[in-house]
Amino acid sequence: MTPDQLEILITYRIGQSYETLKEAEILFEQSAFRGAVNRAYYAMFYAVLALLATRQMGTSKHAGVLSLFDREFIKTGIFSRDLSKSLRLAFDRRQTYDYGEFVAMDETKSQETLNDANTFVATIETHLRSLGYCNKIFS
């Protein structure tokens, strides 16, 4: 992948993250809490894909993305463990509320996940900018 192609991919993924965050906020405002959690998690997922692209890494499996994020960016001290915890919590909630039977999502957990996603995406974007990526303004 050329440097220009990499920049395009990273910019696309961060843009996708912010668009998905907007979807999560709209769903939350409409009391569609399960959908808000789903979109909040995916906003975080797309941000990690942008981050992994800087290392020419990626996978289509969610567990693989979480594992690579931890190995490459948490264990190395680039990001705090709290960032990993918020990503994993969002993943677990999405799994529970998308696939669980008779599981009701509540407003508080949905709001917490949305807040975490906003922090997560902004943190990833800031890091990518420090590396010289994401010259377009999203937030």
Description:
The chain contains five helices and no strands. By secondary structure, it is mainly alpha-helical. It has a single domain, classed as Nucleotidyltransferases  domain 2 (Four Helix Bundle (Hemerythrin (Met), subunit A), Up-down Bundle). Helix 3 packs antiparallel against helix 4. It is globular, with a radius of gyration of 15 Å. The relative contact order is 0.19. The mean pLDDT is 91.
Most strands sheet:
none
At CATH's second level, what is the architecture?
Up-down Bundle
Kindly state the number of beta strands: 0
CATH topology: Four Helix Bundle (Hemerythrin (Met), subunit A)
Task: Tell me roughly what share of residues is in helical segments.
Answer: over 70%
Low-confidence stretches: none
The helix count comes to: 5
What is the class in the CATH system?
A: Mainly Alpha
Whole-angstrom Rg: 15 Å
Q: In percent, how much strand structure appears in the residues?
A: under 5%
Q: How many independent structural domains?
A: 1
Structural class based on helices, strands and sheet pairing: mainly alpha
Q: Would you identify the CATH H-level superfamily?
A: Nucleotidyltransferases  domain 2
Oligomeric state of this protein? single chain
Global geometry:
globular
Distance between the termini: 27 Å
Helix-strand sequence = HHHHH
> Mean of the pLDDT scores?
91
Name a few traits of the molecule:
139 residues, mainly alpha, Four Helix Bundle (Hemerythrin (Met), subunit A), 5 helices, globular
Would you kindly provide a brief summary of this structure?
It is built from five helices and no strands. The protein has helices at residues 3-29, 33-53, 62-74, 81-99, 107-130.
